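Notebook B, p. 112. Complex prediction, attempt 2.
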Amino acid sequence: MNTLSEENYLKAILRISQKSDEKITPTAIAEALGNNAASVVDMIRKLTDKQLIEYDKKKGVRLTQQGLKDSVLIIRKHRLWEVFLLEKLGFHWDEIHDIAEELEHVSNTNLADRLDQFLGFPEYDPHGDPIPKANGKLPKTFTVSLADVKTGVTCKVAAVRDTSSPFLQYLVKLGIGIGTQVQVLERIEFDQSLVIRISEQDKTTVSQRFSESILIS
Amino acid sequence: MNTLSEENYLKAILRISQKSDEKITPTAIAEALGNNAASVVDMIRKLTDKQLIEYDKKKGVRLTQQGLKDSVLIIRKHRLWEVFLLEKLGFHWDEIHDIAEELEHVSNTNLADRLDQFLGFPEYDPHGDPIPKANGKLPKTFTVSLADVKTGVTCKVAAVRDTSSPFLQYLVKLGIGIGTQVQVLERIEFDQSLVIRISEQDKTTVSQRFSESILIS
DNA sequence: AAATAAAATTAGGTATAACTAATTTTATTT
DNA sequence: AAATAAAATTAGTTATACCTAATTTTATTT
């Protein structure tokens, strides 16, 4: 079994690898976890010894088969618990991430599968992220962000790239949730901010960083 | 906030205080947690500094108001999660304790109350133990054990004092659950074992240790 | 290619929470 | 009351997982 820290490293490595295809450096992991790079080097050694990752200066950090399996399970549990917290317990969008960060480490073998069944085998979590199946397979993921949508086009919010409270609270304030229709009205060249229409509401302007955090379908 | 270890100590202290009125010694805590007495002395200092307990060689260890509040909340979470695991996820009687040991440490402020509501404000957990209310109050507890029942009397199983897998699996095998009718047919003087009738079944003999672990109403 | 900057690594240190072994204190026998 | 046993405590050690500071390696400029 893996410790809490080990699990958090595995999860971070998986998330980084999903975000881009660049090689995963100790610095990137340090940044993702808010840890010192020296600590990361320690943990890389530990995870390598446990055969959960492989590390090569040229290729960076890679998950082994076992490491991938373990980290996908953590993500699976995280997202299932998020569905549970929102749908069953009535928590708000911006509260569930932090609680799921703790719940994901509860370690019983059957827990994820039973929870999955109890929830009716959901495919996406409340942020639109795909929930890995029991066999490790992922439903299809959305990768086009609102920032890449052409002017005039109307699309639907499919997922969010940022699960932090401030971001999600801002979305609530704007009236944006998963499935909300958004039309891109104008792109301001100066700073790539977007003028958008959210469902039937008045126009709003949002920053580039904001539009990059919204994935659409 | 309290660490995982601190929480486990608080919980152990509460449980010991509920079991008997004798003073709580470092040795008793060490035994309950399976730790070395020296470790317990360290932790007593820490919890005293945090004003969660008071320690006096004469009076032993006592929970302060805050310590009591914290430890009751842990027990509350533990027992609520047990109900969830059994009723909602379909885990068996003997599986839920260990999972709840992990779940009880998840720390969101509203989690226990929301879970409580979701479960319909249950009063007892699947082992018959009373679930502390949000205000810290306990439903009435059963304290008479099967070992104290007079010969000939029929009673109902209200709770179990032991939540270990082997014990619970034995209960399942015998056909005993919370609410099961049990009649005491004979008490063997030699070793205080009991001959009992479980609902309508044939007679069985059970040991003293066994009958002491069953609380009745 | 040399100089500089950035990244990775090593060395050594800290806090937590456990441990063993030795000692002191308290309780129980004789 | 002295002897013995048990309990509590202290002193010192270990593993985990982090840290800072210094050094080495690698990458980027000039």
